[in-house]
Structures are given as C-alpha cells and as structure tokens.
Amino acid sequence: MKEPRLSKAETRILEQYWKLGTASVREVLDSLPQDERVAYTTVQTLVYRLEEKGALKKVKKIGNAQLFQPTLDQRQYRSRLVRDLLDLFGGSPRLLVSNLLENGALTLRDLKALQGAARGDKNGHSRGGKSA
C-alpha cells in the first residue's frame, strides 16, 4: 500500500496518535500543548481525513466517542519523508546537509555530533578520546 501524503496539520495529529496509541478526538485535542489547541471540530475533521487516507482506523465506539489508532508506522513514515526530501536535492545527502548548514537549520556543532554518532560514539568524541 502506498503511504498517503499528509498535510502538516494531519501529521501533527498523527504524531499525537503515535504518542497516545488508541485515543478519541477529545483525548488527542487535550494532549495538544495549549498554544497548539484548535477547535474540537478541527481535530475531528483532521482525524476523519486521516481515516479516509488510511493513516488511522476506527477501533471502537464508546457512547458517542469513537476511538482511533494509527495504521502507519512512525519510523517508516519518517523514512519516506526523508527519502522525498533527498529527492528534492537530487538524491544527494551532501547537497541537503550543505543547504541545512547554509540556512542555519544545522550548526557545525550538530554536524560534529552527527559525525560522532556515525562513528558509534554518542558524545561526539572519537575512540581516541579527542573531540571529533
């Protein structure tokens, strides 16, 4: 099955389902940080869209509340987004990282930490104990 294209708002709601597991629209709304709160009907519409796209499925009804759970795997979904992003840079991770460095989204400190992680050391140090 091809993964659906999701809007930023849909992805934000799906992220809450990944955190909560099975939940109602009200539970998702209540789990959002105060500065991200929107109307109940807005969250409800996004949940129904996610269900239509196959990202959520209805699993239970308790009274008037319907419970949904995610059908998309978070790791697979994010991997696909990264692949799509790489495609925008001709498949070149170097061009992507260069762009992130140029616009300030990635710092040299971040880059050094990533280099350390790639070497298997989470502290950003090489095996000799020196900074990467």
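The record above closes out task 2.4. Task 2.5 opens with a second protein, given below.
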Amino acid sequence: MMECPKCKQINPPGAMFCDCGYAFTAESAGQKGPDAPSSHAYAPAPAYTLFDHRAVWVATFFGQPLGGAILIAINYLRLGEGATVAAFTILVGLVATGLVMLFVSLLPWGQVALMLDAMILLFTMKYAKAIQGSSIEEHKSRGGRLASLWAALGIGAAALAFNALAVWVIYTGGHIRPSAPASGDLHPDKVGVATLDAKVAESLETLRARGEHGDPHAQLELGNLSD
C-alpha cells in the first residue's frame, strides 16, 4: 500500500495517481524497467475548479473579507487541505469583517473610509495569491480550470446579504418596529393611550391638558381629531 504525501490517502500498490491528482513516480509505485512510466508523469486534468486572486478580489469587493475568505476556504477544500483549515479561514474572515465594520462606523465617511476599503481589497488579494498562488499555478499547468468570476460575484453578494442581516440584528435586536398608527386612529375615545407610541401619547396628553385649561388652539386641534 502507498500513502499519498499530499492528502495522506492510502492507495493500492502500483497506483500511478492518487484521487487528489498527485502523480506517483515509477519508483514509488514499485515499477522498474524500460516499461515503467516516467518519474515526470503528470496527473490528468483535475475535474474541480479553483478561485484565483482576481476572484477573491471580486468577492471581497462585495462581501468584505468574509466573501474573500469563503473563496479561499473553498480552494482549501478542493485542494484536500481539510475542513478544519477551511472553517478556520471563514472564521478569520468573519472576525475581520466585524472589525472592518466597527472601524468604518467610527471613522468619518469620505476619504478615510474609502482608503480603508481599498487597503482591505489589496491586502486580501495579495494574501490569497501568497498562500494559494503556487497551488493554483500547478492546477492550471495540469490543465485545471479556474472558477468563474460570476460565481465569485454571487458568493460575494451572499456574504454582503449576511453582513447586512448581522448589522440589522445587532442594531435592532431582530425586532421589526411597528409602523405609526394612521391619523384616523388617534381619537382618544377609540384608541387607548397605552397603545400609542410614547411620543405621540405624550403629545396627546399635553394637548388634552391644554384644552381642559381653556387653550383655544388645543381645543381646535382636539376638535379636528374628533372629526
């Protein structure tokens, strides 16, 4: 039995290629003689696609670091690096996105915020190229294809929707604020003060108190409400 040095999968004796695409040499496969395949044999073109640094840039542009991290994690899974590495990459993307949102909320809108976004895009693209660039080049040299930029855009849009939902939950607690009651529903005899918005109820009570003290303007407003 032969263990693949790339993905650690156990392969049967004499196997020339692992399922991950790694090409065993003739010596490691246990073959000798003139009929043995060359030690420089190449694996067939991989069936999977990978996202390059341009795709990571697109996903980050729409979905912040989380979008780019998802693409890098997908590459890790397809390269056989394991789910743990992929999950950790997404976690780092989540934390980085949270920090970016915090900084942007504290910074004045304008050139400072735009410069921060530009730095994040550049860093994420350079980081993706540094950690996976060689694997992607090897993938392409074996005939492998790159994933579509449209797919990267879709993942970035999904990350953007997730970020927007997270911000909404954080700032509103997940509660939808009720709409203000219609003006026709503000009659004091029909709607209890307890059911009104706090500010509207306070204004109505003040108006009624002024009317009871003989304020003609208040009495006129109360008359309009009763109509």
